[in-house]
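[09:14] KT: can someone run the structure on this one? pasting the chain below
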Amino acid sequence: MRISTAFLIALVPASAAASSTSKYPPPWIPRGGASTKTKQDVRKYRMEQQQLMQLRSMILSEELAKRGIPIPTLQDVSVPNDQKKPEKVDWDCAMATEDEPKSCMLSFDAEANTKVLAPIDSDDWISVSALNRLRRNDPTKVDPMWHSKFAIVESWFSPSSPYALSSSLASRPSTLLLSFVLDHKWALSLSIVGSLFTLVILFLPVLEVLAQRLLVSDFLWMEWPKWARYVHAALPLKMLIVQMSFKYAMQALGKLQNRIRATLIEIESQALEDALPLTVGPGSDVIEMDLTSEAMDGGEGGGEGGEEESESEDDDDDDYVDDEDDDDWGEEEGEF
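[09:31] RB: done, structure tokens below
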């Protein structure tokens, strides 16, 4: 049987209600100022929901921008108004030698007989190998090397850019395939797993013989008291053992993948260094073209000088013939 609160209040005398109210709050108001706490909880809840909504809109904007939709992203709002966005830039390639050393932004001085790159009309050089390693391991650190003035990753390593370094690798399809594998992590993982599976198939007869030898060996069955407890263990323990074994196997596969990736990056760096043409300094195409043009100009000048000399010799011969004709005419006149 339920009794309403109004009925209970009506039964209490006014004096008793007044005296009790001075000491204790009415029964319909929670103790401890619940009205203020409720407002704080509501305000906190609204703030959390506002933050979550902003995070969702930010993630959605980033994904839409990746798909080519022109929408502001976090990078657009993080750049101050007085600071320009990184611009695409062409590159210069030079050879660092002992006679003409080049500085490197990562290792102070580049190694001798190695190629270095820099934005065009700039002296901020960096070796090709160091740049390729940096953009493969942490591409977010490439643009800040030039104080975010140039979009180096987008300009030099994007296939759609007119200044892409991969254009020099057009005659090397194997290097382009290697770059594709390094660009996509799933391709590298699939290649490693496929290679291991192929090796297992190739050496399957040998593995079967080794497994048979191991199963009938004295070494295995002499240790039966030690590993028999795992054979007859409960199912949860067996599942835990399988889980831990799978975890260690994946860790080993990850370490193998990292080593193979580091080796492939070095191969790609070497191929890129061999393929890039020199644009400035000794051995560059510009200097060879200048020397060729000077040689051609010198040859033309020599030809003109030869023509002038031949013309002068012809004039001398004509004068000599005229003199001989005058002498012959004088002798004939004397005889007459």
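[09:33] KT: thanks! Confidence is low (pLDDT under 50) at residues 6-22, 287-295, 299-310, 324-336.
[09:34] RB: yep, looked fine to me
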